[in-house]
Design goal:
about 425 residues; 8 helices; five-stranded parallel sheet; FAD/NAD(P)-binding domain; 2 domains
């Protein structure tokens, strides 16, 4: 491969997290030429390189691709309820992609695009000090932060409409039991944590099995994950917090546990949200007593609203059970583009809805829907994704294990902060906190 190489594909997927990997597998296993571009060295995104070994949504009816990952984790013996070992998932996602015939490109970033008449024509990719140009009939943005769409000039939303603040970022970690007392150590210049109230994030760890502790405990707010310097500052702050948390839990809860590993990159809950043909908003979800369906629903979200405070430390925020709801295909189509889809946390919703539908199992279902839609568009010979048969798409997704009726899913809401523990009365109004 020379310094400037042009490659031709049917479908290009940017981002190899759960959404992007599922999209690529769904399209490639139908016989199409699919390129999957990923910045890290493996697939799975936040569930692998991010170290988040926990699913936060209902797991049934999410599609046969997600079901395959569950089955493989079971075969490895590394699943404990909704917790799992992320290292094995790296192997599982790679094997799924290889078996489907996906062309993988790791250590690669999309750095530019060319558009013609409302369609993406080519993208430019940088990897190993080389530039690669790729053409495709359809493109899927599964970058999480909407990088591909932003480069193409698509309209995007980001953060709170009034302040621009996004949901906080978290660097996760895993501890292992050494079998003997460890010596807590805090580097000079870092303030010790003296009690639970001083913890920066969500608690002080969960004992997943007899030996391992999962730490989803750092909380970095007021940083922009789409700005390189702000993102770097967030990583730096998260590791400072991790050192302080480790020192605290070794003195209190887990005196024999040592740090076994942390995420290769910080977990980003929210970046850009790409404006689609339809924007799903919180007013449609809240105050309902029944599930929400759409004629063009292609995936179902089951998780509670998980809207952490944008400014406060600790576990403060707004968690609320909502009835299961369908995600319209229109939320997966970039407005103004004929061949650009999106899947994962960057789809077209407002910030509150995004806090619910951004969960990994839901993102995997979205990815399978987007990849299947792109494949059907190629097979049908249409030049605009809107021209595919929605009943045909829904039938194919149903045949591949996605339950598209939100009424047949179970709402997932382990934490509901609407009720005050003492007064037992609603804390927020119908549309959430101020």
């Amino acid at each position: 491969m020379d310094a400037m190489t042009t490659l031709e594909y049917d479908i290009v997927v940017a981002g190899g997290g759960s959404a992007g990997a599922a999209a690529a597998v769904a399209a490639a296993r139908r016989g199409h030429r699919v390129l999957l571009v990923e910045e890290q060295n493996c697939l799975g995104g936040i569930s692998t390189t991010g170290g988040v070994g926990e699913w936060f949504a209902s797991l049934a009816g999410v599609g046969d691709i997600f079901q395959s990952t569950l089955q493989e984790l079971e075969r490895y013996g590394v699943r404990q309820g909704r917790f799992f070992n992320p290292e094995y998932l790296k192997i599982i996602w790679q094997r799924l992609a290889e078996q489907a015939g996906v062309q993988l490109l790791f250590h690669a970033s999309v750095i530019g695009v060319e558009t013609k008449a409302g369609a993406l024509a080519t993208i430019r990719i940088a990897s190993c000090s080389r530039e690669i140009v790729a053409t495709a009939k359809y493109f899927i943005d599964a970058t999480g932060e909407g990088d591909l769409a932003a480069l193409a000039g698509a309209e995007c939303m980001k953060g709170d409409p009034a302040t621009g603040l996004t949901l906080h970022m978290t660097l996760t970690a895993w501890l292992y039991d050494t079998g003997k007392a460890v010596t807590p150590y805090l580097p000079k210049g870092l303030a010790p944590i003296t009690c639970d109230a001083e913890l920066p994030g969500l608690g002080a760890g969960w004992l997943v099995d007899n030996q391992r502790v999962y730490l989803n405990a750092t909380k970095v707010s007021r940083h922009d994950p789409t700005d390189p310097f702000s993102l770097t500052a967030a990583e730096v702050e998260a590791r400072r917090q991790l050192a302080r948390i480790l020192h605290f839990v070794q003195r209190t809860r887990f005196p024999t546990h040592a740090l076994g590993g942390s995420g290769a990159s910080i977990g980003i809950r929210e970046g850009r949200r790409i404006v689609g043909d339809y924007v799903l908003r919180k007013e449609e979800l809240l105050g309902r007593g029944v599930p929400l369906d759409f004629p063009d629903g292609v995936a179902v979200a089951t998780s509670q609203i998980d809207f952490h405070s944008l400014t406060k430390a600790g576990s403060s925020g707004w968690r609320q059970r909502v009835e299961c709801y369908a995600l319209p295909f229109r939320c997966l189509i970039a407005k103004g583009f004929s061949n650009l889809l999106m899947a994962g946390k960057c789809i077209s919703t407002d910030q509150v809805v995004q806090s619910s539908c951004r969960m990994t199992p839901t993102c995997c279902a979205m990815g399978q829907a987007a990849g299947t839609a792109a494949a059907l568009a190629v097979e049908s010979g249409v030049t605009d994704i809107r021209q595919i048969s929605i009943p045909g798409l829904r039938a194919r997704l149903t045949a591949n294990g996605l339950e598209l009726d939100p009424g047949k899913h179970e709402a997932f809401a382990p934490h509901d902060t609407r009720l005050d523990k003492d007064a037992r009365r609603p804390r927020y109004g119908a549309l959430g906190p101020p």
